[in-house]
């Protein structure tokens, strides 16, 4: 007589688990607008994926203390899903890196080249240096907007 009840409870628990794994907790100051970022080409599950959110102000992009915040989540090889709060719908820019050693800084070689995987919103080319701000501007018209950033390793 408890079997149908137990089966229903197990099914509800399984559905809740699937739902929570599909919708990761969001990082950053809470707001009603969420941006879902798929970070592709993650080489390993070591360390963290750091997603830096910038406002639509060219002079603040990649500048020291120019970002709104940096959200960090554990890295997952292949694709890491990241949910970040943005203040409101609007235009932003993202810089993403794989902090493989989890030291919370973007590591470079002695020549100043990146030693950790990195990428930007809209996946602009970076073989001649850092991208132009106009190439990384990302429209977030509503909560739940999705984007994909593909990491590059040098």
In summary, what is this structure?
With 154 residues, this protein is α+β, with helices and mostly antiparallel strands. It is built from 2 helices and 9 strands.
Structure description:
- By secondary structure, this protein is an alpha+beta fold.
- It has a single domain (25-150), classed as Sandwich (Immunoglobulin-like).
- It contains 2 helices and 9 strands.
- The protein has helices spanning 3-22, 133-136; strands spanning 26-27, 33-42, 48-54, 69-74, 78-86, 90-99, 118-120, 138-140, 145-150.
* CATH class membership: Mainly Beta
Question: N-to-C terminal Cα separation, in Å?
Answer: 62 Å
Report the average pLDDT across residues. Answer: 88
What pattern of helices and strands is seen along the backbone?
HEEEEEEEHEE
Helix content: 10-25%
**What is the CATH-assigned architecture?**
Sandwich
| SSE-based structural type | alpha+beta
Strand fraction equals 35-45%
Features:
154 residues; alpha+beta; 4-stranded mixed β-sheet; globular
Topology:
Elements lengths: L2 H20 L3 E2 L5 E10 L5 E7 L14 E6 L3 E9 L3 E10 L18 E3 L12 H4 L1 E3 L4 E6 L4
């Amino acid at each position: 007589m408890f079997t149908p009840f137990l089966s229903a409870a197990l099914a509800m628990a399984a559905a809740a688990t699937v739902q929570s794994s599909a919708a990761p907790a969001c990082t950053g100051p809470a707001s009603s607008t969420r941006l879902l970022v798929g970070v592709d080409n993650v080489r390993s599950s070591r360390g963290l994926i750091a997603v830096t959110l910038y406002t639509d102000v060219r002079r603040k992009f990649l500048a020291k203390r120019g970002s709104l915040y940096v959200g960090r989540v554990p890295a997952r090889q292949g694709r890491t899903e990241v949910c970040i709060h943005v203040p409101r719908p609007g235009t932003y820019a993202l810089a993403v890196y794989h902090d493989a050693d989890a030291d919370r800084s973007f590591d470079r070689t002695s020549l100043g080249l990146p030693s950790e995987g990195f990428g930007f919103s809209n996946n602009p080319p970076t073989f001649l240096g850092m991208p132009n701000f106009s190439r990384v501007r990302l429209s977030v018209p509503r909560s739940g907007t999705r984007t994909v950033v593909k990491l590059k390793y040098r």
